[in-house]
What we know:
- The chain is mainly alpha-helical.
- The chain is built from 18 helices and five strands.
- The chain has two domains: 42-383, no CATH class; 418-495, Vaccinia Virus protein VP39 (Rossmann fold, 3-Layer(aba) Sandwich), CATH 3.40.50.
- A five-stranded mixed beta sheet has the order 2-1-3-5-4, covered by helices on one side.
Amino acid sequence: MLQTYAMKSKSTLNTAFGGGRLLLLLVFVMASLVLFFSELLEKSMFIDGVWYAVISRNLAEGAGSFWFPQFSATIFSNFHEHPPLVFGIQSFFFRVFGDHLYTERLFCLLHYTLTVVLMVKIWEKATKASGKLARWWVIPLLLWQVNLVTYYFQPANLLDATIALLGLLSIWLMMKALEARQALPWLLLAGFTLTAALLSKGLVALFPLAFFGIYGLIHHQETSFIKLIGYSLIVGIGMIMSLVLVLLFVPGAGESLAQYIDIQVLASLKGERRLYYYRSSRFYILGQLLFVLVPMALAYLVSRGLLRLIKRKMTQQLATPIVTPQKMPWVFICIGLSASLPIMISPRQAIPYLLPSIPFFSLAFGLWLAPTLIQLLEWGQSSWSKGFYLFRQLGFLGVVLALGFCGMKWGTQNDRDAVTIGDAILIGEQVGKAQVISSTTYNMYISGYLMRYDKISLDTNTLDRPYLLTLKSDLVKDSRYTKVSLPTQQYDLYTLEGSYTNKTD
């Protein structure tokens, strides 16, 4: 019975997706499991995402407020490094699901799922006139998933994932406006979406405002550029109106955003806050963008080469070439550039900042790759049916193995922060929950994990707390301090019995 059910399920999948699309879908599922879901199951997370989870958890528990969120009682007691909307939304997850390590993972999973849905919707709109092509939405999804930026940083609870999601939503709303009889509601919704993006990560989130200008320049023969400029103005008015309403009627909003602009935006532009992601060259982000787009370009070139090789050796006719929209790939390329190149204005640059642009580059390269790839898959299915069938079975097997790989990653630690996590757990067991301890060192990783696991705040100013945290390289000379015997690897913990002297004194 189980075998019969399995055969019926495979037949249904083949009917619904077609052989080639089914194979690509299986590859996408494998890639998603290995490159995204397995990351969600680890204890490790990029440290920025750990901090954002701490801030959101604190907000859910009443520490800080929406406009004045808090990291800890001693470090960033008012956190204005970013606008607070994402923390407010994520705090809802902590209210519903509680303070568990996988609460922020569920938040990341929601981002992932909605991003996939919006990419499919945009692909279908871009290919609506091409009929058959609209059903091959798995191609851009696969290009997006196997991209380095996506599989490293989409599971990392970063604000850039929210910007990517809201950017896709606003572009989809603007594309709806292009075909709607009544464009105004869609345009205003796009404006409100951009306000949400602005309140999530500031000015870098406003790149969708360039959509109508880009679309008009590329489609100038088919549409009125003046009309599209009017559409852009309406989107801008909707954004400004909603932002003004927030500033006028929501207490604390103006002061919070003013502090964000002063502390983050202006300081970043001036290069005053020299952190590890400040670059000596403003072209750093451009180089990283070109690097991460190489696999997409190679996929296109290899598929073209294979198609030419097959055409030389085969006498039978290949599948009829698919007519694709010639201009939409360039629209998506330009949107991707508008989301990434303005980052060069600031010396503060990091690869995760490319997250909002990668979906659009994936859509563009997907449109270029699709006609060739579809012909190759349909030829393989008809001319090499046994081998093609074998590949599909291997695809199902690959999904099962990928699920097993995810299970093996449950609760594991990445080499990037395994030592810090281990030390944080041991220190938390000794110190207890919700304590403030003195520290001779400040590090985002140890402070982040101590707060995330046990709500332990580090005080680097007052050295008379019940416990003292030091690096193992620090020497505590005062005999009134007693070292706690813990099998930590990077940090030492002391109980207070006197003062201390750092080895650098």
